[in-house]
Amino acid sequence: LLEIEFPLEYPSETTCRLRALHASDLHLEYKSCTKTITNYVESMCGFECVESVMDWIAENKDSCLIESESENDSLLVGNDREGKVQCFILRYNHLLSGREHKKEKSMLDVAKKSKLQGGLLWGSPGVVIVVPPSTFEDANEYASDCRTIGKRPDGVEEVWLRLDCAEEAGLGGLAQQKRGGKLRELDTATLRIACDDENVLRMVLGVH
């Protein structure tokens, strides 16, 4: 979520203040993203600032919320990541199951061809979870392929899942090999197993 605060002097020659916040916990901030956007708009003022920020996000949304593992402000640090794997979420307005839905079928075909590891939740919102050994670069490339197909994800968002829970949900690895390389088709119950936490589940679904 992007929080925009207008100073009391608005709409005079002032710059709005911005913070990039984690959707599942508004107390957590993507500080590197906040800093990048703030630097971008520091020479702008008033409503020009908001318009420019929207343009910047449209161009950088696939990467601006990915926190560097070397930064001190990562959302999960130290022991909190023990036993967990870095995964990536692509969220869509809707994904419809069935051969008659050609764009969604193309999405599945592209994922299989690129050997993308993970799962897919049909519905509204539709969600693709990318799990190791697939990487952020793989997720980002898949997002680009989806846009070409005509299915535009909100972006690529990082999430850390317990390895044992991801495996129990059948995401990636040997389970995917047994499916012939296809993404695991998920329902909400299976997704809940993978997330193992209601806050994580809400974040994956984009529920505030």
Describe this structure in words.
It is a single chain. Residues 67-78 have low confidence and may be disordered. With 208 residues, this protein is α+β, with helices and mostly antiparallel strands. α3 (102-113) runs antiparallel to α4 (136-149). A five-stranded mixed beta sheet has the order 7-4-6-5-8, with helices on both faces. A three-stranded antiparallel beta sheet has the order 1-2-3, with helices on one face. It has helices at 31-41, 46-60, 102-113, 136-149, 163-168, 173-178, 188-195, 198-205, and strands at 2-5, 17-22, 25-29, 84-92, 118-121, 126-130, 157-162, 184-186.
Q: Return the structural class.
A: alpha+beta
Multimeric state? single chain
Distance between the termini: 10 Å
Query: Any idea what the radius of gyration is?
Result: 18 Å
Output the helix-strand order.
Answer: EEEHHEHEEHEHHEHH
**Number of discrete helical segments:** 8
Describe the largest sheet: 5 strands, mixed
Map the helices and strands:
Layout: E1 2-5, E2 17-22, E3 25-29, H1 31-41, H2 46-60, E4 84-92, H3 102-113, E5 118-121, E6 126-130, H4 136-149, E7 157-162, H5 163-168, H6 173-178, E8 184-186, H7 188-195, H8 198-205
Parallel strand pairs: 5-8
Antiparallel strand pairs: 1-2, 2-3, 4-6, 4-7, 5-6
What distinguishing features does this structure have?
alpha+beta, 5-stranded mixed β-sheet, single chain, 3-stranded antiparallel β-sheet, 208 residues, globular, 8 strands
